[in-house]
């Protein structure tokens, strides 16, 4: 049972990360969803543990079968969450009524929460009767959870899509169950598992295509989509207009005038803005508009590298050219950290001074900006609220 306890901890945390990220996208990136979802998750796992406690002493075969069922349910649950606004007949681009949000989360978390609750309770019961103590059972499950969380973090860091992670998690559960049938009664079930493994391998291989297809349910004119550590970025095009969505909430579109209003109203407050710092919003056309004020230098700080990688090639030509001008310097960093720890040297701004027939290369300190523009999204989430605090200003 040691292996199963470790596996339950691993897939529990990994699956939780997958589902929470999907719910966050389904409800437009509002972090309140995390609090509600974790509470519902705990309710269902507690219910599963209660059901397990009342049942007879389980066999390893029963635990194996539940692991296989979990591996099937997790990818299907992701598909359900992607379709939740359509299933509840939500208005495109609008929040579902709060009661429907809660109901949809209860449904989404019910199968995996219940399964994991039963799994842990049964595995711990068998472990205590045969090998060790309940404290060590919790310790083994916790170690698996830590490694599951680490795996999820690294996968997101290296750009693995959320649906691919869900498929890998499901495949791991099914394969682990297949290789741990321990009694004769399980031989018949074991013969039926290889086709399921082949099916999940096929789903994993086609995960990018399936992922894109599910995203088109809410974005019919999809150009591209990608998960990042900060959320899902989706790009659409309709009649030449490019629109960017972060966690399914509209971030900007290329046919609007917001960039002009934002840049010029701010820049006109300074008689000669030589050095300008732009925190976010460069891909929206703000850099393009700032060039009319002839700044010597524009430092553009973007929080999410995925946005730059995904969007720039699809932008109108004038916006792309503005980002490639020699006086525009792009940094991928947290704007708060950038302001606190600005680079003290710029490799592109070396000053050569001749002194006593020697060339001394000195790099000037970071400039004092004449103008700082905060082009971050509105403070509708904890991630964005950080840029609207007294300390930040």
Write the layout of secondary structure elements.
Elements: H1 2-26, H2 32-54, H3 60-82, H4 84-87, H5 98-130, H6 134-157, H7 162-178, H8 187-205, H9 207-215, E1 222-228, E2 231-238, E3 241-246, E4 249-253, H10 258-267, E5 275-279, H11 286-290, E6 297-302, H12 305-311, H13 317-323, E7 328-332, H14 335-340, E8 351-355, E9 358-362, E10 371-374, H15 382-385
Parallel strand pairs: 5-6, 5-10, 6-7
Antiparallel strand pairs: 1-2, 2-3, 3-4, 8-9
Helix pairs in contact: 1-2, 1-3, 1-5, 1-6, 1-7, 2-5, 3-5, 3-7, 5-6, 7-8
Characteristic key phrases:
393 residues, 14% strand, 4-stranded antiparallel sheet, elongated, single chain, 4-stranded parallel sheet, 55% helix
Please summarize what this structure is.
The protein is an alpha/beta fold and 393 residues long. It has helices spanning 2-26, 32-54, 60-82, 84-87, 98-130, 134-157, 162-178, 187-205, 207-215, 258-267, 286-290, 305-311, 317-323, 335-340, 382-385, and strands spanning 222-228, 231-238, 241-246, 249-253, 275-279, 297-302, 328-332, 351-355, 358-362, 371-374. It is 55% helix and 14% strand.
Notes on the protein architecture:
The chain has helices at residues 2-26, 32-54, 60-82, 84-87, 98-130, 134-157, 162-178, 187-205, 207-215, 258-267, 286-290, 305-311, 317-323, 335-340, 382-385; strands at 222-228, 231-238, 241-246, 249-253, 275-279, 297-302, 328-332, 351-355, 358-362, 371-374. The protein is α/β, with parallel strands linked by helices and 393 residues long. A 4-stranded antiparallel beta sheet has the order 1-2-3-4, sandwiched between helices. It has a 4-stranded parallel beta sheet with strand order 7-6-5-10. It starts with a helix and ends in an 8-residue tail after the last helix.
């Amino acid at each position: 049972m040691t292996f199963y306890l470790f596996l339950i901890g691993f897939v529990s945390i990994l699956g939780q990360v997958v589902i929470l990220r999907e719910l966050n996208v389904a409800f437009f990136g509002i972090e309140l969803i995390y609090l509600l979802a974790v509470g519902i998750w705990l309710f269902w796992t507690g219910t599963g543990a209660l059901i397990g406690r009342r049942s007879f002493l389980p066999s390893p075969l029963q635990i194996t079968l539940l692991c296989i069922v979990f591996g099937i349910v997790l990818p299907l649950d992701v598909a359900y969450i992607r379709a939740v606004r359509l299933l509840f007949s939500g208005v495109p681009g609008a929040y579902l009524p709060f009661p429907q949000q809660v109901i949809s989360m209860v449904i989404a978390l019910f199968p995996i929460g219940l399964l994991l609750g039963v799994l842990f309770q049964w595995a711990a019961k068998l472990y205590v009767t045969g090998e060790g103590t309940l404290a060590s059972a919790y310790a083994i499950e916790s170690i698996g959870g830590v490694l599951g969380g680490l795996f999820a973090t690294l996968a997101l860091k290296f750009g693995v899509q959320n649906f691919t992670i869900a498929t890998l998690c499901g495949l791991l559960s099914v394969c682990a169950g297949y290789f741990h049938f321990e009694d004769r009664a399980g031989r018949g079930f074991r013969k039926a598992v290889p086709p399921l493994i082949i099916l999940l391998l096929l789903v994993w291989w086609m995960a990018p295509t399936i992922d894109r297809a599910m995203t088109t349910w809410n974005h019919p004119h999809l150009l591209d989509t990608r998960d990042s550590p900060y959320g899902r970025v989706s790009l659409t095009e309709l009649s030449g207009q490019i629109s960017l969505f972060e966690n399914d909430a509209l971030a900007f579109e290329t046919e609007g005038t917001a960039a002009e209003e934002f840049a010029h109203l701010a820049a006109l407050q300074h008689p000669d803005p030589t050095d300008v710092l732009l925190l976010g919003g460069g891909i929206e056309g703000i850099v393009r508009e700032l060039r009319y004020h002839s700044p010597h230098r524009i430092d553009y700080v973007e929080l999410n590298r995925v946005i730059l990688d995904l969007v720039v090639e699809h932008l109108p030509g004038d916006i792309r050219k503005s980002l490639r001008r020699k006086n525009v310097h792009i940094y991928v960093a947290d704007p708060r950290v950038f302001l606190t720890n600005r680079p003290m040297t710029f490799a592109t701004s070396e000053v050569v001074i001749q002194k006593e027939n020697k060339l001394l290369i000195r790099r000037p300190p970071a400039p004092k900006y004449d103008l700082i523009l905060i082009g971050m999204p509105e403070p509708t989430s904890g991630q964005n609220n950080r840029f609207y605090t007294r300390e930040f200003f």
